[in-house]
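Technical annex, item 7. During the second reporting period the consortium partners agreed on a shared format for inverse folding records so that results from different sites could be compared directly. Each record opens with the tokenized structure and is followed by the designed sequence. A conforming record, contributed by the partner at site C, is shown below for reference.
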């Protein structure tokens, strides 16, 4: 019984370290969120399960800070390369909270092929505290918990 507990603890420790490293890798070295007089601007972002391919749909909805429901402002973008990058520069977001949704085919890095199925990813960002606004598998899991 003690051996099983030790193995379980080791597995949990490994999982936590792996998750911490993965979360650290989700952002980038420089901030892409900037506060301006009218609200916030966001330079660019990434949509990744494997990278969503060029032309994938990205929608950003402003959220009410009290209810986390869409407040009415919605912005549509597309990924502009096969790395999942999308450009949001020039758009001013007046809401502190936004929901980013991306859908499209992704490049499977294990098989080096484009997926046969569409994936949809979602993330919620607080522009006061988030340095980058990217959507990936981890933001998908997190947004369901929020």
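Designed sequence (site C submission):
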């Amino acid at each position: 019984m003690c051996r099983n507990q030790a193995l379980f603890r080791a597995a949990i420790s490994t999982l936590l370290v792996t998750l911490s490293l993965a979360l650290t890798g989700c952002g980038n070295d420089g901030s892409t969120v900037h506060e301006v007089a009218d609200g916030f601007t966001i330079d660019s972002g990434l949509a990744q399960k494997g990278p969503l391919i060029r032309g994938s749909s990205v929608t950003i909805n402003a959220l009410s800070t009290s209810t986390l429901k869409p407040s009415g402002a919605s912005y549509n973008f597309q990924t502009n390369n096969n790395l999942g990058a999308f450009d949001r520069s020039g758009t001013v977001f007046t809401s502190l909270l936004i929901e980013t949704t991306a859908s499209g085919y992704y490049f499977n890095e294990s098989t080096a092929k484009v997926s046969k199925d569409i994936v949809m990813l979602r993330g919620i960002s607080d522009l006061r505290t988030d340095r980058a606004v990217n959507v990936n598998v981890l933001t998908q899991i997190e947004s369901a918990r929020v």
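Confidence is low (pLDDT under 50) at residues 14-29. The CA atoms of residues 5 and 119 lie 37 Å apart. All partners now use this format for quarterly exchanges.
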